[in-house]
Design brief:
The structure is a homodimer of 622-residue chains.
Chain A: H1 4-9, E1 13-14, H2 17-23, H3 33-54, E2 60-69, E3 72-79, H4 89-93, E4 98-99, H5 115-127, E5 131-136, E6 143-151, E7 156-165, E8 172-180, H6 191-201, E9 206-210, E10 216-219, H7 242-251, H8 257-264, H9 270-280, H10 293-305, H11 321-331, E11 339-344, E12 348-350, E13 353-363, E14 374-379, E15 382-384, H12 392-398, E16 420-428, H13 445-497, H14 505-512, E17 515-524, E18 527-536, E19 542-549, E20 555-560, E21 565-566, E22 570-578, E23 583-591, E24 603-606, E25 613-614, E26 617-618
Parallel strand pairs in A: 2-9, 14-16, 17-25, 24-26
Antiparallel strand pairs in A: 2-3, 3-8, 5-6, 5-8, 6-7, 9-10, 11-13, 12-13, 13-16, 14-15, 17-18, 18-23, 19-22, 19-24, 20-23, 21-22
Helix pairs in contact in A: 3-5, 6-11, 8-9, 9-10, 12-13
Chain lengths: 622, 622
C-alpha cells in the first residue's frame, strides 16, 4: 500500500546553512553589487578590530581595493592582530556559524560566526575564485598562507593550497577576497563612508584605505588608549525565558538549587538565592538537574518578586564623551562645525541585558540648513548603514520634539531639519538586531527611552549654545543702538535747551538692565583654561549662584576664586552682591585634555530671574 | 612557545543553527509576544496550504487558539492534507533547515525548512513544554502522535513520546503548540487579520478559526477549483552567477558542453547551446566537468550575447483577476465598497527568475476618505504583515502619481490618501525577501516596474469608474436644470410676446450637445448580461467605435448586434451614423461567472471627441 506522503517524504532533506545563505544572499547584506563590497570590507574590519582589542593591540588596519577586471575587484584587509593558528584558519573563514564569541555574553562586533565566511561565499559565487588568507601568530612563528573555498553542500572549508611563508610583520592576518561588485565613492553608503564612520567610533584605530584609483586615505587614531576590555557576564534572572532556564538547570554541575542560582546568574548572592527559592516554596537543597517544569515556573515567577541588583556593567565598553567629540571633530573637520555636543548615559538594562547609549550632535558650519539632519547610527562601534527607517535609533529621534532645541520639525514628530548631524551609539552584550545582517536595532522600549534621554542632554547643550549666541547678538545690537542714539538725543536736546550735555552712562545701564556673562576657553599645553566674566548692568547689586558644566573626563585644576561646590558634573560659585557696573572674573582649568575636547562653557544661574541674564540659562538641577 | 592565538583558538567552536535562531529569535518573527502567536499560526497554515495544493486536496484548515494559563496559549492547526510519514515527523517539526522545497525552483509558500521548527523552538523556549504532532497518511493507515522537542545544541529532534492512535480523518496533520504570547484582536496585525488576508489570496481554502473566547469564524472558500500545480523549472542562463555555474558544470553527468547546457538550463535548445559555445570560442564536445574558470567566464559572457527565450512560466501559479475580486468582495463585504478593480500581468523575468504581479483596488463605500490607503501585500499567496516601509510593493505604490487617478497625494509621491485599499500579489519561484522571516520583498527594479504597470491598469479602471460617475452626476444636474428652466423661460417669453409656447426639446438637445452612454450589468443563473445604451443628444449624426473591456475569465456568449472585433481584452462595435435623438442598444453575455465577478463596464470610444461623450473614456489602444 502506498500513500502520497511516502512519495513526498523522498524529497525531504537537510539544507546546509551555506546553501541557505548562498540562495538568500540579500539577508547577509549582499543584495546589490555595491553593498557586496561594503559588506565584505565591514566583516573583515569588524573581525580585525575585535581581535586586536581582545588581545590589547592598538589596531592598525589596511584596507585596499584593487580593480582586477570588468566589475571584478580584489579586496585586501590586513591587520596587526594576534593572528589565527593554522588549524583554525579554514574554519574561521570558510564555514558559517563557527566562531568564538557566540557562547559568551560579552560586547563584541561579530558574534554569530557568519560574516566573513559569507563574504568568502559571495566571493566564490561571483568570481569562481578562492580566497587567500595569510596569518602569523607571533615573532618566531612562520606565516601560513591558505587558499580556500567553501564546500556549500557541507558548509565545510576546502583547502586548495597551503604553504608556509615569510612575513616581516610580528603578527597579523591578511585576507584577499576576489569579488564581483561595483565600487562607488562620495556617498555615505560606500566603503569610504563606512570606514569614515568606523573611524569616528573607534578613535583608537588607525585605518589606511587604498582605493582602486590608487588614492590613499589614512584615518588616523586620536587616542593611544585602547578601550577597556569588556568583561564576560552571566545571564541575569530578569528576562530569563522558561525554556532557557530549564536547559541551564538540566546542565548545571551545581548540586543544590541555591548554589545553581548563585553560581550561574548575575546579581544572585547565596542570600538572594535562598530568598528566591523560599519565595518559590521549594527545597533549597533539591537537585537542579531534576527540576520539574512546574517548579521551574515557580522560580521564574519568584525572580520577579525578589528584588535583585542590576547586572554588572563592566561587560560594556563605551567610547566616552570626549573621544566621540574628538572623532567627530576630526572627521567633520571639512564642515567647520560651529558646535559639537556629546553625552554618555549610565548603563541601563532591558530583559536582564545591560546596554548603554552615547550620543553626539554636530551643529552649524557648512552643514546644509534646509535639509533633513544626517543620522549616524552605531551598534557596538559598528556603523549601521541600511534600514534607517526600521531602527530604534531613528524611532527615538523621530519621537522627540526637536523644535524646542532649535531644529525644524513639522508637528514636533519625524526626522528634524537643520544644519546638524545626530550620532547615536548603542553598546550591549546582545544587541537585538532586526535581521541577520546587522542593519537596524529592533524596537525595545528601554533602549528608545535611553536614546531620547541622552539626545535631550546633547540637545540642551546645543540649545544653550544657540540661545546664548542669539541673545548675545540681539543684546549687542541693542547696546550698539542705545550707545549710538542716546548720546545723539542728549546732544540735540542740550542744543535746543542751550544746556550742557549730561552724563548718560548710567542711563544706558538702566536701559540695558541685565547681567552680562561672557566666557572664554583657551588651550595651553594639555590644559584648558576657562575664564568667565560677569558684569552687572542693573542698577542694584545682584546675588546668585553660577553653575559651569564640567566635561565627562579631564582633571579639574586651579579654580579661582575657590568654588562653593564641586561635583562630577559641575562647579558652582556663589556670587554675593555684585554691584552695578562691577565686573568680576571666575576661572577654572582642566588638565589632561586636548585642544577641542572642551571649547565652550555651558553656564547656568540660580537665584536670579534668568530673563535678566545674558550668557547663562536657568539652572534646573543636575 | 605559546602565542595569544593559541589561547583564542580554544574558544572557537561550531554554533548550531538552532542555537543561533534561539538567540536571534526576532529574525524569524518572534520579536514580540503578539507577533510570536501570529508567526506560529502563519508557519503552520503555510505548510498546510502547501501540502494540500501539492497533492491536489482542497484545503480545509482548522486554527484554534486556547488560553491555558496567564500569558500562555495552546495553538492548534489541523489540516486535511496528505499527512507526513512517521519517520519524517520529527525532522519536519523539530529540525531547522530541513525540508523538501529548498532544492527545487518552484513556487511555494515555505521554502527554507525553517518556519515550523522555529515555532517549536519558540514554544519550548517560552513554556518548557513539548509540541504534539498527530499525522495520518491515508485511509487504512494508523495515525501517529509524536511528542517532540528540539535539542538545540545539535539542531536535532528529540522524541519524548510516540504512539499510534485512531483518527477518524482520512488523512491530515495536526500540531499542538503551547506558547507564551499575547493574543490581540481587531487589528490588521493579528491572527484574525492574518487569516482574513490569507483567505483573500487563497480563495480555494476553507479556514475555520476558533478564538480563545470561543468565537468561531469560518473563512469560506469562494471556488472549488485548486490553483494549477506550479511546475518545477531549471535555472535560466540570464542571472546565472559564475560560481553557481562552475559548481553545476563540475557536478553534471552530461559528457559534452553542449548537452550540459541544453539539459540543465531553461530555454537552451541544442541549437542555442551550440551557438553559445561557438560565441564563447570553445569546443562543443569538451567535458564540462573539466571546465576551467577562464572558459566558464567565457560561457557566462556568451549567455549575454546569445538571444534566449524567457524561462517557461508554468512554474507560477497566479490567482487570477476574478478570484482576487471574489476574495476581496467577500472579505470586504462589511465595507460595502463602491468599486473593485483587479489586474493580472503577464509573467516577467528578473535575473533569469520568472515572476508575476497581480493587483487589486477596492474603492469607496465605508472606507475612510481622509486616511492613508490601506496596503495589502502578498508574496506567493502569503500575507506580508511587517516592514511595509522596506518593501518593493510599497516602493512601487509610492513612486506612482496617484493624483491622476483620483486619490490625494502630496507632490505626486508617497503613499496616497483616500477611501481605497490597494492589494499587490507577487508570485515567483524565488521571492527575494529582505530577511529570513519573510516580511518584505527586496527592491528589484523589474518587480517594481511590473507592480506599477499593473496598478496603473487597476487605477485606470478606478479612474474611469470615478469620472464616469462624476460626469454623469454633473450632466444629469445640467439636464435637470435645463429641462426645468428652459420651459419656464419659454412660457414667460410667450406670455410677454402674446405668442404660443414653442417646442423646445430640440433646443435642449442642442444645449446638451453630447452622446450619452449608459450601461447595466445583470446576473442571471451563472450568466452576466451586460447592456449598453447609446443616445445621441447632438444635432448631427455620429459615427464612432465603442470598446467594452472584457474580464480576464468568463466565456463570451450572445453578442448583440454582432461585434466588429472581439479580442481577449475587449469587444468592439462600429456605430455607424446614430441620428440626433436616436437611441441604440448593444449587449453581450459572459458565461461561467458568479455574481459580482463583473459588475460594471469599462467603456472606451474612438473616432469621436471624448469631450462630447458621457459614459466612456478615450480609447488609447489595448
Amino acid at each position: 500500500m502506498h500513500s502520497i506522503a511516502e512519495g513526498l517524504a523522498k524529497k525531504q532533506r537537510k539544507i546546509s546553512v551555506a546553501e541557505f545563505f548562498e540562495r538568500n544572499k540579500q539577508i547577509l547584506g549582499f543584495d546589490t553589487s555595491t553593498r557586496a563590497l561594503i559588506t565584505s570590507v565591514k566583516e573583515a574590519v569588524d573581525n580585525a578590530l575585535d581581535a586586536c582589542e581582545e588581545t590589547g593591540i592598538l589596531p592598525d588596519i589596511l584596507v585596499e581595493i584593487r580593480s582586477t577586471d570588468d566589475d571584478e575587484y580584489l579586496i585586501i584587509v590586513e591587520d596587526n592582530g594576534p593572528g589565527i593558528i593554522r588549524k583554525q584558519i579554514p574554519h574561521v573563514f570558510a564555514r558559517l556559524l563557527y566562531g568564538s564569541r557566540f557562547h559568551s555574553l560579552k560586547q563584541s562586533r561579530g558574534q554569530q560566526g557568519i560574516g566573513i565566511s559569507a563574504a568568502v561565499l559571495y566571493s566564490q559565487l561571483t568570481t569562481g575564485k578562492p580566497t587567500v588568507v595569510t596569518s602569523k601568530i607571533g615573532d618566531g612563528f612562520p606565516a601560513h598562507k591558505c587558499t580556500l573555498v567553501i564546500d556549500t553542500k557541507k558548509n565545510r572549508p576546502e583547502i586548495l593550497h597551503d604553504e608556509m611563508t615569510h612575513w616581516e610583520k610580528p603578527s597579523g592576518t591578511r585576507i584577499e577576497l576576489p569579488m564581483g561588485g561595483t565600487y562607488v565613492r562620495n556617498r555615505r553608503q560606500s566603503v569610504y563612508g563606512y570606514l569614515r564612520s568606523t573611524a569616528i567610533v573607534n578613535p583608537h584605530a588607525r585605518i589606511t584605505f587604498v582605493e582602486p584609483n590608487g588614492n590613499v586615505t589614512i584615518f588616523e587614531r586620536v587616542t593611544d588608549k585602547l578601550p577597556p576590555q569588556p568583561k564576560e557576564i552571566k545571564p541575569h534572572p530578569y528576562g530569563m525565558e522558561l525554556g532557557t532556564f530549564i536547559k541551564m538547570a538540566k546542565e548545571t554541575n551545581a548540586r543544590k538549587l541555591t548554589s545553581f542560582l548563585s553560581s550561574e546568574f548575575s546579581s544572585v548572592s547565596i542570600q538572594k538565592a535562598k530568598s528566591i527559592v523560599e519565595t518559590a516554596g521549594l527545597d533549597p537543597s533539591s537537585n537542579p538537574n531534576k527540576l520539574s517544569l512546574e517548579n521551574a515556573k515557580k522560580i521564574i515567577n519568584a525572580f520577579k518578586k525578589v528584588r535583585l541588583m542590576s547586572p554588572p556593567t563592566d561587560c560594556l565598553s563605551p567610547i566616552g564623551e570626549i573621544l566621540i567629540k574628538r572623532g567627530l571633530r576630526k572627521e567633520m573637520d571639512a564642515l567647520s562645525p560651529e558646535f559639537i555636543s556629546t553625552d554618555k548615559r549610565n548603563p541601563s538594562v532591558h530583559s536582564g541585558i545591560p546596554f548603554l547609549v552615547e550620543t553626539g550632535i554636530v551643529y552649524g558650519g557648512n552643514l546644509p540648513s534646509e535639509e533633513r539632519v544626517e543620522i549616524l547610527r552605531f551598534a557596538n562601534r559598528v556603523p549601521l548603514l541600511y534600514q534607517e527607517g526600521d531602527c530604534v535609533i531613528t524611532r527615538g529621534i523621530k519621537n522627540m520634539d526637536w523644535r524646542r532645541y532649535g531644529l525644524q520639525q513639522r508637528g514636533g514628530k519625524g526626522i528634524p531639519f537643520g544644519p546638524a548631524i545626530i550620532l547615536v551609539h548603542v553598546s550591549s552584550v546582545n544587541i537585538p538586531f532586526t535581521s541577520e545582517y546587522k542593519k537596524a536595532i529592533a524596537n525595545v522600549e528601554e533602549i528608545e527611552k535611553e536614546i531620547k534621554l541622552s539626545l535631550q542632554q546633547c540637545a540642551r547643550k546645543m540649545k544653550s549654545h544657540l540661545s546664548k549666541k542669539d541673545k548675545k547678538v540681539k543684546t549687542k545690537n541693542k547696546f550698539t543702538l542705545i550707545s549710538k542714539i542716546l548720546p545723539e538725543i542728549a546732544e540735540k536736546s542740550s542744543q535746543v535747551l542751550g544746556k550742557p550735555v549730561p552724563p548718560i552712562d548710567d542711563v544706558i545701564t538702566k536701559i540695558m538692565n541685565i547681567v552680562w556673562i561672557d566666557d572664554e576657553v583657551k588651550y595651553q599645553e594639555g590644559r584648558i583654561i576657562s575664564t568667565i566674566s560677569i558684569t552687572n548692568y542693573k542698577n542694584k547689586a545682584q546675588s546668585f549662584e553660577l553653575y559651569a558644566a564640567l566635561p565627562d573626563e579631564g582633571l579639574l585644576g586651579g579654580v579661582n576664586p575657590e568654588a562653593d561646590e564641586v561635583k562630577r558634573e559641575y562647579i558652582m560659585w556663589k556670587i554675593n552682591g555684585i554691584k552695578p557696573a562691577e565686573k568680576i572674573e571666575l576661572s577654572f582649568q582642566l588638565l589632561g585634555m586636548e585642544k577641542g575636547d572642551f571649547d565652550e562653557n555651558t553656564l547656568y544661574v540660580r537665584g536670579i530671574d534668568p530673563v535678566n541674564v545674558i550668557g547663562a540659562e536657568k539652572w534646573e538641577g543636575s
